[in-house]
Amino acid sequence: MEPHKNKNRYKAIIGGREYTIIGDAPMGHMRLVAKSVNQQMAEISELSPYLDTTRVAVLTAVNATSDLLELQIETEKYKEKIAALEKEMLYLKQEIKANQD
Fold this sequence. Notes:
Elements: E1 8-14, E2 17-23, H1 27-47, H2 53-100
Antiparallel strand pairs: 1-2
């Protein structure tokens, strides 16, 4: 069986070159990803016009990975806060029940 048979395919121009993005994500998501990468590459190119496309692409990947890691850390903090609030809520429910008895 072909690994990409039932996947979505989106042809995108990124950094002036054509790429086919293959994945399960909806076409709109793929379009937004390509647009975001192009915007980030354009920003880096504008700030450092002497960089070639490969270096611009690597810096774009580094920035995207950094953003992802920051979001993962933030998500973990929120998960911890939610767990603490759930624990507090359970305690308060038990207190209310104990006071009703």
